[in-house]
Structure formats: structure tokens, C-alpha cells
Design goal:
The chain contains ten helices and no strands. By secondary structure, it is mainly alpha-helical. The chain folds into two domains: 1-162, no CATH class; 164-327, no CATH class. Helix 1 (2-27) packs antiparallel against helix 5, helix 5 (132-156) crosses helix 10 and helix 9 runs antiparallel to helix 10. It is globular and about 60 Å long. The two termini are 21 Å apart. The mean pLDDT is 95.
């Protein structure tokens, strides 16, 4: 069982890395570095596809294809493929150890199904030319993978590993709502990123010098459309990008206020102070990064850190929900 737990932990660490690397690929505009799937121009590596990459560069020197972008994209695919194999190993081991494990083997099987769906979303991300709905779904799938791996690892540690946490059933409702709010905020953040709306507002706390700037919510949140276009194929107006950014900011305020209250309750609950402080620290980190991305015009390092911070904050809320639901 110890090797099974170790396998889950290593896979969880890799999943966090894959999510961060995926953000790096997306934010560095390398998502179409290899415009086919699963290889690169039909080859295993960009090195073997060098001639075709050179041909694409000669036709569009500033296009989405370059040697550097191809390697970024393929590195993400290699790690995602490794993650898939590890999840498959977890599913097999979970089934074989189903009489010794601390829960049903259905959770590892669900993880495996999610990874298969993630692979499909990864393929569609490329073949559908970075369609915002698909790219956002791919991001959420990665976050869901991290969450399920964390829950599985916590479960397989057994009851003795959680004995220092007091019963806190009175926190279940707040913990659940906090988790849901963070998930919604991550989805909105993904929608901002996949629509390239992060710099629709370049000032803070106002947006374009106003508290409520001109916004187009209808086109902003039409899900089935191509990148940079409305559902009818017209250029997506600036007012729509502003609406996407503004809603993400507004939700950030809601999440911050709610989690601040939740942290105050955790600090008063026996055994939960450390987890409460961790959530508070991650929340401050995320808010600071969000503001910094606006004020410093979205530097790549800060943008990737903001995505990684979202994954860590999600993990903290998943951990909390596991704790308050333990028997």
C-alpha cells in the first residue's frame, strides 16, 4: 500500500507540473506550435519535423509555428502522456488493491476516464485552432485531475493520518461553497486567458478609467464561437473582452471576501488554524499576482504563477473539504 500511495503522490506532483506547463504553453502562444496531434507534423519530435517547421516559418515568419514553440508544445504532450500512463497504473493498482484500499476503486477509474477525456480535449484544442470553450474545458480538466489525485492520496493515507483534526461538520457548508466559488473563478480566469482578455483593463482598481466601463456581455459569454470572433464570425468587440475581464475581477472580490470569512472561522476551529493560514496565504498570493499582471502588462512569469497559484488554492480547498467530511 505504501508504494501505491507513493505512486499517487508522484502523479499528483506531475499533474501540478503539467497544469503549470500547459499555462506556459498557452500564455507564450505556443498552443499551435505543432498544428497536428499527437506528433509534430507527423513526427515524434520537432527535431524530426525541422524541415516542415522551416517551411511554415518561411510562409509565416510571425505565425504560430516556430522551433521553440514546437518544443514547448511537445514537451507538454510528453509530460501529459507520462501523466496518462501513471494514472493508468493507479487505476490498475487501485483495482488490484481494492480489498486493501480505504475506498472504492471507482475513484481511480474515474481518474482514468478523465485523463482519456483530457487527451481528447488536447487533440481538439489543436485541431479546432484554440477554440476558447475547448481550451477552457482543457484547463478545467487539468484542475479536476489534480483535485481527484489529491483526494485519492488523502484517502489512501488512512484515518490515522488525520487524527489530529477535530470534527468540524459545522464547516461543511462553508467549505463546499468556498470550493465551488474557487472553481467558478478558475473557469472565469480560464475564459479570460483563452480569449486573450487579460489586458482589456490596464488599470486597477478601475477598468479603462471607470468603475463600470462599456461592456458587451452577450458576445463575451457566447460559448460556441471561434477564437477572437462572435458566433456570427465577426471580430469580437473590445466591449466583450472588457466584460470578460471585468466579471473575473468582480468574482475575485466575491471569492476574496468569502474566503476571508472562512479563514476566520478556521482559525477558531481546533486543529484547522494551519490550513486556514495556508488558504489565507494562497489567497493573498493570488490577489497580488492578479493585480500585478494588470499593472505590469501580463509578464509571462507572473501569468504562469497566477495559473499555478490557482491550482494550489484549489488544492487547499479540496484538502479542507476532505478534512471536514472525514468520519
Amino acid at each position: 500500500m505504501s508504494s501505491y500511495r507513493t505512486l499517487i503522490l508522484l502523479t499528483l506532483i506531475l499533474a501540478l507540473g503539467v497544469v503549470s506547463l500547459g499555462a506556459y504553453v498557452r500564455l507564450s502562444d505556443a498552443g499551435l506550435g505543432c498544428p497536428d496531434w499527437p506528433g509534430c507534423y507527423g513526427h515524434l519530435t520537432p527535431h524530426h519535423a525541422a524541415e516542415k517547421i522551416d517551411a511554415a516559418l518561411s510562409q509565416a515568419p510571425h505565425g504560430p509555428v516556430s522551433h521553440a514553440k514546437a518544443w514547448k508544445e511537445m514537451a507538454h504532450r510528453y509530460l501529459a502522456g507520462t501523466l496518462g500512463l501513471l494514472v493508468l497504473a493507479i487505476a490498475v493498482a487501485g483495482w488490484r488493491l481494492r480489498r486493501e484500499a480505504y475506498g472504492s476503486p471507482m475513484l481511480p477509474m474515474l481518474l482514468l476516464a478523465l485523463i482519456v477525456f483530457q487527451a481528447l480535449l488536447g487533440m481538439w484544442t489543436v485541431t479546432r485552432l484554440l477554440k476558447p470553450l475547448i481550451v477552457t474545458a482543457h484547463l478545467l480538466g487539468g484542475m479536476a485531475t489534480v483535485s481527484l489525485l489529491l483526494w485519492l492520496w488523502l484517502r489512501e493515507r488512512g484515518q490515522s493520518a488525520h487524527a489530529y483534526f477535530a470534527q468540524a461538520s459545522h464547516l461543511r457548508g462553508a467549505a463546499t461553497l468556498g470550493l465551488l466559488l474557487v472553481i467558478v473563478q478558475i473557469a472565469l480566469g480560464g475564459w479570460v486567458s483563452t480569449n486573450y482578455a487579460a489586458l482589456a483593463c490596464t488599470d486597477f482598481p478601475r477598468c479603462q478609467g471607470q468603475w463600470v466601463p462599456p461592456m458587451d456581455f452577450e458576445h463575451a459569454f457566447t460559448l460556441h464561437r471561434e477564437l477572437g470572433e462572435t458566433a456570427t464570425g465577426e471580430l469580437l468587440p473590445m466591449a466583450a473582452l472588457t466584460a470578460i475581464h471585468w466579471v473575473h475581477r468582480l468574482m475575485a472580490l466575491v471569492v476574496t471576501l468569502f474566503l476571508a470569512v472562512l479563514v476566520a472561522r478556521l482559525l477558531r476551529a481546533p486543529g484547522y488554524a494551519a490550513l486556514g493560514l495556508a488558504i489565507a496565504g494562497l489567497l493573498v498570493w493570488q490577489v497580488s499576482l492578479g493585480i500585478s499582471n494588470v499593472m505590469f502588462s501580463l509578464p509571462l512569469s507572473l501569468a504562469v504563477a497566477h495559473n499555478a497559484g490557482a491550482a494550489w488554492l484549489l488544492c487547499a480547498l479540496v484538502w479542507l473539504n476532505f478534512r471536514v467530511r472525514r468520519r
